[in-house]
Amino acid sequence: MKKKNQMSHTNRYILLGLSIFCVLMMVLSSFSDKVGGPFKTVANVTVIPLQQGMNQIGGWMGDMKDNFSTMKQLKSENKKLREQVDALTTENNYLQEERYEFERLQELYKLDQNYAEYEKTAAHVIGKDAGNWFGTFTIDKGSKDGIEVNMNVLAGSGLVGIVTDVGPTWAKVRSIIDDSSNISAMAISTSDTCIVSGDMALMGTGQIAFSQMENNDNVVAVGDQIVTSYISDKYLQGILIGSVSEVNVDSNNLTRSGYITPAVDFKNIQEVLVITTTKAELTGENKTE
Amino acid sequence: MKRMKVKRIFITALVILVAYVLQCTVFPVLDIAGIKPNLLLIVTASFGFMRGSKSGMLVGFLSGLLIDIQFGKMIGFYALIYLVVGFLNGLFEQMFYDEDIKLPLFLIAVSDFLYGITIYFFTFLLNSDFRFTYYLNRIIVPEMIYTIVITLGVYPLLLFINHKLEAEEKRSASKFV
């Protein structure tokens, strides 16, 4: 009996000790980023190599699966694609025409700040959030590859998120569908600014919400593209977020809000592009928060 | 004796690592309606009631810390939650029998439920997000059910590992007597 009591006493001390440690770390790490340093190194030698390995195995298995897709599927796909080629050729001619017009207009407006010009580096997604509550993931490039906090992350043509934390060979990315994500954005057609915020409730439907768009005479219709705005101090201007899927006038009659279908398929992100220029660098600001 | 202890620590660490890596690489692919099971919680709770509070706490602390480092907003938050989960499950060590799978299932279900509520409380409610029933139906309960289903497969494996280790410990202990 005595021995058992002793055991439960030591247990209580361990519980108390570790709890105090946790609380202390929480307080410290919310004040300073340096606290995480040693832990990041620990992760670097333990889980990151394993995750990278698993990722490679997963990619290899995905390739294998693709190889097994049958001839029949390929044939029907081929037929469909041929039809698509015809349709696209017609469309292409039309677009070529439009392009000349666009180039002319671009010259007029000197709108050459396309994000194709930003320098980018590719990275693999190696781990997704362990829980169900947030939309963060890790990539396999870190400070050794020149990744810094606040760098924008793209996949395909659209915005995925922003780097929030960097380890030596990995970085944490908060996606724009994460509940705590808020971005200043604008409609490409009218330049009206709005706030695009991720929402846990919408994550399942694959949409994100926008709000606070001025209710003026400019018509923002379904299908209009939303890009990052010039106001944001973290996101570079003009990166495509998605297209409007629903727009409503708020009950106060002053603002509009609605939903956006993101340009990126957040379910299947495997490779991302990190823009290695931050907005702070671009604007020459060196803000220390 | 000492060698056994080192072996146990090594294997436990290995189990945590494997569980963690599976949790963030394989499980996101296996998700149903955006919900994935919580493997680390199963491991933490299992070590709690199989080995007692001390093991549960250490396993929970390490698992939580791994999550904190890679995905947490601050270090220590998940570590604390998993620590408490390990400790509470350890209190049921006396009631635990190997053959009985009802108690482990029940404990893991309750642990996961409380885990969900805690996360909601500290990261959403305190952020003035009051849609509790939504999160309950969308995340907490589905995650609990999925976790229980996974438990049916994972728990026998953990039990087997524990059995093997305990048998070996007994053998090496009897050598010295």
Automatic annotation (TrEMBL), chain A:
Q: Name one Pfam family in it.
A: MreC
Q: Which residues form a coiled coil?
A: 64-98
Give the UniProt keywords, A-Z: Cell shape, Coiled coil
Q: Where is the Rod shape-determining protein MreC beta-barrel core domain?
A: 125-275
Please name the GO terms of the biological process aspect recorded for this protein, alphabetically. Answer: regulation of cell shape
Show the GO cellular component annotation of the record: plasma membrane
- Tell me if Cytoplasm is a UniProt keyword of this record: no
Give the family, as the similarity comment puts it.
Answer: Belongs to the MreC family.
This chain's function reads: Involved in formation and maintenance of cell shape.
Entries under PANTHER family matching the protein: CELL SHAPE-DETERMINING PROTEIN MREC
Please give the name of this protein.
Answer: Cell shape-determining protein MreC
Organism for this UniProt entry: [Ruminococcus] torques ATCC 27756
Gene name as annotated: mreC
From TrEMBL, chain B:
In which compartments does the protein localize?
Cell membrane
Cited InterPro entries: Cell_shape_determin_MreD_prd, Cell_shape_determining_MreD
Question: GO cellular-component terms in the record?
Answer: plasma membrane
Q: Its topology with respect to the membrane?
A: Multi-pass membrane protein
Pfam families according to UniProt: MreD
Protein family membership: Belongs to the MreD family.
Protein name according to UniProt = Rod shape-determining protein MreD
Its source organism is [Ruminococcus] torques ATCC 27756
